[in-house]
Amino acid sequence: MQAKLVRDLMITEPTTASPDDSLGVAGRRLLDSGQRTLPIIDANGEICGIITDRDLRLAADSPLIDEAPAEILENLQKHTVREIMTTAVHSIEAEAPIIEAAQLMRVANVAGLPVVEYDETGNHEHLVGLVTRSMLLDYLILLLEEQNEGEPVDGEVMVGEEER
Amino acid sequence: MNVGDLMSTQLITIEPEQDLGVVLALMHEFDIHSLPVVERATGRLVGIISARDVRLAIDSPFSSPDDEQAANHLESVYVGEVMSTSLVVIGPGATVGDAARRMLSHKVNGLPVVQMDNIGNTRLIGLITTSDLLRYLADLEGDKPVEG
To answer: A57-84 pLDDT, tens per residue?
Structure first.
């Protein structure tokens, strides 16, 4: 079997938000989309940041202990994505092999990577997809299932046996 | 390949009698968001405490004008009072696929690996995380020819 590329696993047209959206809007989008990572796109269509469900939980909890959910939500409406987004965004290209996505997510310790494409000048990147840890785990499960089908019933899985 | 082959065994743990000040110090030092809670006498896994549990348990240090007061408060709350005791765990003999499925279905980034000792205690023997699984995936993929 051939090595997969990011484009084989990514979702296209991921849900995004703008830096000027409120945290309430961003939270709603995360919930509705089922994504745990939200790429933030500026007015030029370029990626300027990223926020995660964890960032939102941190924003919701910290100044607001003991408040009711409605009040938390109201408070989130007063703050914008720009205030909490991470601006040093790790991204990957659609033609990169999956192994690069797995290594980058692990080393950068992130839950997801925006998938980007560069224009002819090579200066401007735009979002074409999203690849996440969950998608890679789904793929790992698939790989292992396929591998086991090819093994004798009592066979040992040989790959990577010497590691760690 | 089983969970026992991929798990890390160098663990940072905490005891239920320790206070939240110690928890925060460990979380900062090792850049981690959660700690397994282990009984010293038995090695039994009794809970897990996350940075979020700590934040929710203390008066907000961000709104307090008096940092010393916040620090004192941290030291007066014990791990056993605020830890979560409903745990999703896995055994060392489970397959890597089982671990991946369990992490996905419970939406967690890691699983404590436990083993029953001969007197019936569920001992913590390791930790497996999504990063361990990504490393394994990279190994599997690295052995294949690249497309195109």
So the answer is: 888 765 444 455 666 667 788 889 999 9
Q: How many domains does chain A have?
A: 1
d(CA A54, CA A57): 5
A–B: how many Cβ contacts below 8 A? 103
Any residues with CB less than 8 A from the CB of A23 and at least 6 apart, and which? A56, A59, A60, A76, A77, A79, A80, A81, A83, A84
Distance CA B137, CA B148 (A): 20
ipTM field = 0.81
Kindly determine whether residue B145 and residue A134, on different chains, have CB atoms separated by under 8 Å: no
SS3 A104: helix
B134 contacts in chain A (CB < 8 Å): 102-103, 105-106, 133, 136
Q: Can you give the pTM of this predicted structure?
A: 0.81
Task: Catalogue all structural domains in chain B, each as residue range(s) with its CATH number.
Answer: 3-142 (3.10.580.10)
Determine the distance in angstroms separating the CA of B61 from the nearest CA of chain A, rounded to an integer: 8
